[in-house]
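Exercise 7.
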Amino acid sequence: MSPMPAALDWRDVVVRLALTVIAGALFGLNREAHGGPAGLRTTILVCLAASIAMLQANALLPTTGRPADAWATLDLMRLPLGILSGVGFIGAGVIFRRSDLVLGVTTAAILWITTAIGLCFGGGQLALGVAATAIGLVVLWGFKWLEQYVRQDLRAALVVTTAAAAPASEELRRLLEEEGYHVTGEALRYGEAAREIRYDVRWRGSRREVRTPSFVAALATKSGVRDVTWRPEGFGDL
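Solution. The predicted structure, written as tokens, is:
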């Protein structure tokens, strides 16, 4: 891994910028496919800005040093550090909360790694940048498939609207427990001729099991049940 040369050749600049755009585009395509808040152009621009910052630091190398009569010196490493700090603010801007979901965390992480990759390419560490791009893409695409099979605590909300003569809440709770769901919370609201019961449930499973359970459709056909809603939680980020 060679250090940055004191003098830049235009061919070096072209190679570094080209690899930067390719790396940013590969990560950006993933965000575009999943509707992320930062898409193809944003990811390329962030990666490119980091690369240009390192190219600028490379170009300023001959101006570093401290003459005997100088009271200040040029610290070129402050430039990439400032870029990383600025991207932290951008990453915070793409993370937002919607109801019980936190969205944009993966997009923020992608902006962070593309910045580091851009710094690698801009600084001439081409092998490191290529390796980081390859590993990042394997984690982004390959590990997403693996996550579908990892068993974890899953949560959902079951909301049942019933008539006054419908099954009692104890009967509905027993039905959930018989299906393997643990009830963690219960709320009851009465209207003039109906009542609404909400159950917060939890179970162990993989993300492949987030489809609506079969007992929900069966519950909707019971006498006195007017409406049934099943809302899985915690699947906002892709």
